[in-house]
Amino acid sequence: MEAIKAQVRNQTTGNSVKVLRREGWVPGVVYGSDVSSQSIQINGRELDAALRHQTTNKPFRLDVDGTTHDVMVNELQRHPLQGNILHADFKKINMNEKMQTSVPVLMTGDPELGVATLVRHNVEVNCLPSNIPGSFLVNVDGFQIGDVVLAADLEVPAGVELLVDPTEVLISVLPVKAKSEESIEAEQEAEAVAEKAAAE
Length: 200
Known about the structure:
By secondary structure, the chain is an alpha+beta fold. The protein has helices at residues 14-22, 44-53, 181-199; strands at 3-8, 25-32, 35-43, 60-64, 67-78, 85-92, 99-108, 115-118, 122-127, 136-139, 148-150, 161-162, 169-174. It contains three helices and 13 strands, in the order βαββαββββββββββα. A six-stranded mixed β-barrel has the order 1-3-2-6-5-4. Strands 10-7-9-12 form a four-stranded mixed β-sheet, with no helix packed on it. β5 (67-78) and β6 (85-92) form a beta hairpin.
């Protein structure tokens, strides 16, 4: 299980948060049923590195000045343009108790005909934190127009309960939409302008 080190954050004013971020820290908070809300700060690079190794729906071990908590990321706030993490909320969990969480549905491969479309991007599961799948990966190679992937088609690991109707459609293969006359004319005009600019 991924481990993240953090420090207790004593000052919570707006100016101190700005200073923290300039110095490479990410302000955050950890809370749970048996722990009062605690303000913390985490090294931004270390947090980014940890999240690259696993998805945010998997449990972490958070070490706050020597005190460890088993947690999950409850919310991440990111900069709308730069994408860096601005704030992180961690929720303490019990590794011996089942919990409900959301798992992303991902696609790989290409249909033989048509375009594969995700009808549902996430599904709910119930399991122990250590058994939470990082994702459900579906290979759509060779699919045809009209083919669908149902919740019942997912490869669900042992110990994981899928909390969705087995007949619910997750992926559907649709025909490629024909381009409208307006879009074709717009493309032709854009190409003509580009050719004229290149000639000049």
